[in-house]
Design brief:
single chain; about 220 residues; two-stranded antiparallel ribbon; 5 helices; 6 strands; about 50% helix; elongated; disordered N terminus
Length: about 220
């Protein structure tokens, strides 16, 4: 009986072994296919990572031809995504978008100084007396000028003062021609200030003598 079972056992074992091998073969081929597919995906991902560097601005654009001209330098080595490339000379970027992003960041870090302004509130006015002068620019009559002593200061609001300077105001602004004072008006102003006719004539004579001395002195200096 035992001899008859042995062939059966052997046949069963052989058949079972064939089934096991048959079942194992697709598994081995499947494992090999997955390994091959995984290696191909890894190679593609590495190649893609080496070829493309994502744009840090988020628009996904990467144009190597748009390198900023201001960041010229040696060719940068390949780096990981989203990183700057440090060269021997300067810190450069790969795209124009990165360059613009760096400029905007740099400008935002600049702290602007405090804006200062000037505001005028009041005016201090001094009134000086009119006295006999000695200006050689006077072509006719007695010259006049302002004295050194002045009346007590008075303060006035700036807006109030400017309101009197408008055309038709109490202190209307005058042109350069209107600032010229005729000889008769000068004599009248000096007379009202307390100066006599004799003092005015003496001032005119001194002015005429000074006008003759000055050209002679200038001619003498040029000759020497």
């Amino acid at each position: 009986m035992s001899e008859q079972r042995r062939p059966a056992d052997n046949e069963d074992n052989a058949h079972f072994g064939e089934e096991r091998r048959t079942a194992d073969e697709p598994i081995e081929s499947s494992d090999r296919g997955e390994e091959q597919h995984s290696s191909e995906d890894t190679t593609c991902e590495n190649d893609e990572a080496r070829r493309t560097i994502p744009d840090p601005t988020g628009d996904g654009a990467s144009d190597d031809s748009a390198i900023d001209e201001e960041h010229e330098g040696p060719v940068a080595p390949e780096v990981g995504p989203g990183r700057l490339v440090e060269t021997r000379r300067i810190l450069s970027v790969r795209t124009q978008h990165e360059s613009l992003a760096l400029r905007a960041c740099f400008k935002s870090q600049i702290q602007l100084g405090e804006k200062k302004s000037v505001r005028f509130d009041k005016l201090t006015v001094r009134e000086y007396p009119i006295v006999i002068g000695d200006s050689p620019s006077t072509s006719r009559g007695v010259p006049l000028t302002l004295g050194w002593e002045y009346e007590p200061e008075c303060h006035i609001d700036l807006d109030t003062y400017e309101s009197t300077r408008v055309p038709g105001g109490e202190c209307e602004r005058r042109t350069k021609y209107e600032l010229r004072v005729p000889s008769k008006q000068r004599e009248e102003m000096l007379g009202n200030a307390g100066f006599s006719k004799k003092e005015m004539r003496d001032a005119v004579e001194r002015l005429a003598a000074d006008k003759q001395v000055v050209p002679a002195q200038l001619w003498k200096d040029e000759k020497n």
